[in-house]
Amino acid sequence: MIAFASFIAVTPQSIEVTSEAGEVISAWGNLNWTLLDARGLFTALFIGFFSTIIYAKLMNRNITIKLPDTVPPAVSKAFAAIIPGIVAIYLSGILAFIVSSLSGLSIGELILKYVQMPFLGLSQGLVAVLIIVLAVQLFWFFGLHGTNVLGPILDGVYLSATAANNSAYVMKESFEYLWTRGSFDAYVWLGGAGCTLALIIAILIVSKREDSRAVAKLSLPMGAFNINEPVVFGMPIVLNPIYFIPWIIVPIILTLIAYGATAIGLIPPVFNAVP
C-alpha cells in the first residue's frame, strides 16, 4: 500500500482537455491516465523500490509510534507503520516535485522518455532476444532459476511491450512491438525453460530406462503448466553435459523460428501473457 500510494503521489494530477470551443484547458484533480498503463510500469517499479527502502530503513531504526505494552500487538503494528509510511510517501512526492522543477517533465515522463523507451527499442532486436534466451538457459544449467534471475528485464521490459500490444489490440490499432513477455512462454519455453515438455514426451515414447520414465511421468502434469523443476533437477539436467547441447540449442532454434514467423507476418505478435 505504501508503494501504491507513493506511485499515485508522483503521478501528475492534471490533464489537458479540449473544450467545445477548441481551447486546450488544463484540468486539475484528475490522474493522468497516459502514465497508468504500460508506459508507467518502469515508474511504478522505481517508486515502489524507492518508497519501500525508505519505509524499511525507518522501521529498522525504530522511528515509529511506540505504544504501551498493554496495547494489542495488531494495533501497535498498525500505529508503528504510520510515520515510516507517511515519510516514504512524502519523500516520493518531494522527489517528483524536484524532478519536475528541474526538467519540466514529471518523473514518469522522464523515466518513460530516457529509460523505458530506449530499453524497449533495444529489446526488440533478434540479438537481444537470443541473448536473453541463452542467459536463461545457462543460469538454469548451473542450478539457478534463470527466469527469476532475469525477472527485472523480462518483466520490466518485455511485460511493458505485452501491455502496450494489449492496449493496441483493445483499441484495434497496429501492434507496436514484435516480441513480448508472452512470446517467450508461447514459443520458446514450452513446458518451462529448455522446452522440457518435448523432452518429457520423447522419454515417454522412446526411452526404456525406468528411472527416466518415472521422472517423466511425475513431471508431465506440471510440465503442461510450464513448471519443469522436477525434470530439470530429477533427470538431472543441471550440470549434466549430456543434455547441455540440446538444452542450449533447442530454445535458440525455437526463438529463431518464432521471431522470423512473427517478423514476416505469418503469426501476429503476442499481446497477452500466459496466466
UniProtKB/TrEMBL annotation:
GO molecular function per UniProt: protein-N(PI)-phosphohistidine-sugar phosphotransferase activity
Residue intervals passing through the bilayer: 38-58, 78-99, 119-142, 149-166, 186-206, 244-267
Name this protein carries in UniProt: Putative PTS system cellobiose-specific IIC component
Keyword Transmembrane helix assigned: yes
GO biological process: N,N'-diacetylchitobiose import; phosphoenolpyruvate-dependent sugar phosphotransferase system
InterPro entries associated with the record: PTS_EIIC (IPR003352), PTS_EIIC_3 (IPR004501), PTS_Sugar-EIIC/EIIB (IPR051088)
Protein localization: Cell membrane
Protein source organism: Amedibacillus dolichus CAG:375
Keywords: Cell membrane, Membrane, Sugar transport, Transmembrane, Transmembrane helix, Transport
Presence of the UniProt keyword Membrane in the record: yes
Domain called PTS EIIC type-3: residue spans: 1-275
